[in-house]
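Thread: alpha-D-galactopyranose complex, take 2
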Amino acid sequence: MTTLSNARVSEMFAAFFGYQPVTTLKAPGRVNLIGEHTDYNGGFVLPAAINYNTYIAIAPRDDRQLKLVAYNFDNQSCTVDLDAVQAHNAEESWPNYVRGVVQELRKNGFRLAGGDLYIAGNVPAGAGLSSSASLEIALIRALLALSGEVIDPTKAALVGQAAENNFVGCNCGIMDQLISARGQENAALLIDCQDLSVRPVSMPADWEILIVHSGVKRGLVDSEYNQRRQQCEAAAAFFGQTSLRAVELDQLLAAEGKLDDLSFRRARHVLTENARTLAAAAALAAGDLSALIEVMLASHASMRDDFNITTPAIDTLVDILVEAGAGQAGARMTGGGFGGCVVAVAPAAVIPRLMAAVETNYQAQTGCIPTLIRAKASAGAF
Ligand code: GLA
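Output below.
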């Protein structure tokens, strides 16, 4: 992948459209350190924005059209009439995100103006690193820069989420869009998804984040994801609640045998994951590596055994990292599940050992090809 930057994407715009853009904007992908499938249950998450972005170079047009070009799709282009009712087209991929964002911005009263846009990104797609959310947030910034409107970052996240829920068809929570909009350099954000409050949690300066793509293509993602969400809602309904956030762990444990086993396990994952996320934020802030490792491993086991969203290759990858870390590295699957990436956190001095172990053992044991990504906790789009 070509190295991308604002300057590089401006050049790509100029090469395609034959004139200079007025500006280039970007929004990052994210890695979730812990707190998986808790966001749509009103729970806690602890993601960090990463130094991989979607970039959009823009220039105004004097009509009511958007002309968009996507570098990552062989310079495929799409035109959107800002005055038309936007319709989802199942034959298309990325243009649906554009139409969804246009529709949701309009619904929320934002003025839009015509423009030429060149989009290029280096957030790996289908990896659980939120390339979709980074596209949505970058589009919101780009479209509002064209019309000269201002948006609050949390509102931008809600608009991006609504585009995905109402238009693209994934019933995702708020985590990915919120961290892409509001991430902070060298920190993870502890987000309370019930009231959308955020608290930056700095990482000790000598710790690093290593992301390993498992090479496993994520399959059936949207249908499995939406099904997990329904199962959580059904479990909450058993307790007469609309969200699992309103259910206490003791209450759940007392209902074992009365609540069906599947709902029980789904809810146990969510409630224990909320507690682990708070513990992880405290461990990160205190520089307590053993406490962080303990909750990361417990989180992975809970995703594997109670929420059933890991795959055998991902489980093997976590085992390889944990063994190589020998008590100095935490690791767990990150993101929605069914493939994608594993995240490890360890002192910088331990990272080369983890990388070597993945390179030596992972493909040999699973037949899958790993990609190693040393990521930095980075600033969000706003
Ligand atoms: C996807 C969704 C998020 C979140 C995670 C799982 O990334 O977009 O809202 O639910 O899965 O934690």
